[in-house]
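Subject: design request, 408 residues
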């Protein structure tokens, strides 16, 4: 057992609700707090001195100077396993071309597929681990990572195996997702439907056999997969025992409805979601995930997070870090900016990058600092937790603890 503290403030987020709006008055602040850790789990959070008195002789890890502690952040949507770079796409978009025009002319996702297929496993693993190191430096302790730049059995499995290998090199919890349905690859000889069938017969059984991922994603969009074929695919995927998440309503509305209908864990993007579908999402258990990094990367509008929260949806915020639409990767900067444009409370943003994002991944053992949860937390050198979002990502995390161990 180990006692860590004292912290000027500990923000546990323990009593905050899973869905809907949250006011900042609902945030419980423990001043001069300590975190008691047993076997990697939180035994108790409370006043440091009291915890010390209650647990005489317990090893104490003293925190020097004024620091605050928050639950470790969760990035529930990334594509950080990739080769190459798409700086030219970024430049072309800013010079007037649209994301879809660039995709149709051979740039976009397909160019990342070629770079990823051509990259060696060593190179992909090395850059993936570097990106994870950047994420942990922000205070992120759990990160979802998608395949989707391989787009044939050999290369999708190669990506997922690399993600599995990366788990051996980091304490950050990695949650792999199979996104073979990102796009029908140009070299696939057949229809969209046939490609989706190929995923079901030639990729997912192997993913299952090797334990490479428990989640499946699809990009439903005019340029990718159409609503009806996607619905069929998702139903069959579910029958195979996978959890589902969907790239929904990024440019065209309608697909968040499919996500809800098939019982997806989350519907992500939602920049184009119409009011009626906001209501539909809000009535469901599907987490609505805003990806402000994609809005910033593409110069598109933000996900209507305010409306979603007011309607009662479970709103998470993730980075979507990828080489094309969201090259920044700084979830804290992005969530802070989303807050200023969408008028989100500090409580709503913190919930969105912790326990609500964890819920999207089906993980209930992280995201709040309370008894029994994994002792994943991040500290900042400041006397007030509001400074974290106020600095829009430029206040660096001081220490990151994973399972109670200093990991950054
Ligand atoms: O989430 N929208 C589809 N997929 C990614 C983009 C991936 C890419 O452009 O490489 C996204 O924005
Ligand atoms: Fe994405």
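Subject: RE: design request

Done. Sequence follows.
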């Amino acid at each position: 057992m180990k006692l860590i503290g004292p912290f000027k403030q500990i923000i546990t987020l323990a009593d905050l609700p899973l869905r809907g709006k949250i006011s900042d008055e609902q945030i419980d602040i423990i001043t001069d707090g300590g975190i008691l850790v047993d076997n990697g789990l939180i035994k108790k959070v409370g006043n440091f001195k009291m915890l010390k008195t209650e647990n005489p002789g317990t090893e104490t890890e003293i925190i020097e100077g004024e620091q605050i502690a928050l639950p470790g952040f969760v990035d529930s949507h990334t594509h950080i396993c990739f080769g190459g770079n798409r700086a030219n796409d970024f430049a072309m978009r800013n010079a007037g071309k649209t994301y879809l025009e660039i995709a149709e002319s051979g740039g976009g996702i397909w160019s990342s597929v070629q770079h990823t297929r051509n990259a060696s496993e060593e190179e992909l693993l090395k850059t993936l681990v570097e990106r994870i190191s950047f994420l942990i430096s922000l205070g992120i302790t759990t990160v979802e990572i998608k395949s989707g730049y391989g787009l044939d059995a050999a290369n999708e499995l190669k990506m997922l195996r690399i993600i599995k290998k990366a788990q051996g090199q980091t304490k950050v919890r990695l949650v792999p997702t199979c996104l073979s349905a990102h796009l029908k690859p140009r070299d696939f000889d057949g229809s969209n439907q046939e490609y989706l069938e190929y995923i079901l017969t030639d990729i997912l059984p192997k993913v299952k056999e090797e334990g490479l991922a428990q989640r499946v994603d699809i990009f439903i969009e005019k340029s990718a997969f159409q609503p009806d074929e996607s619905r069929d695919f998702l139903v069959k995927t579910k029958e195979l025992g996978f959890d589902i998440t969907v790239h929904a309503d990024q440019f065209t509305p309608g697909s968040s409805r499919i996500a809800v209908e098939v019982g997806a864990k989350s519907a992500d993007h939602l920049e184009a979601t119409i009011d009626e579908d906001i209501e539909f999402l809000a009535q469901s258990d599907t987490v609505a995930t805003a990806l402000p990094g994609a809005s910033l990367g593409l110069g598109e509008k933000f996900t209507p997070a305010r409306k979603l929260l007011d309607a009662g949806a479970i709103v998470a915020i993730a980075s979507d870090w990828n080489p094309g639409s969201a090259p920044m990767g700084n979830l804290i900067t992005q969530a802070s900016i989303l807050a200023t444009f969408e008028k989100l409370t500090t409580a709503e943003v913190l919930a969105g990058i912790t326990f609500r994002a964890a819920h999207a991944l089906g993980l209930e053992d992280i995201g709040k600092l309370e008894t029994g949860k994994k002792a994943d937390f991040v500290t900042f050198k400041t006397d007030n937790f509001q400074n974290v979002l106020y600095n829009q990502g430029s206040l660096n995390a001081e220490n990151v603890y994973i399972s109670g161990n200093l990991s950054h």
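The two ends are 20 Å apart (CA to CA).
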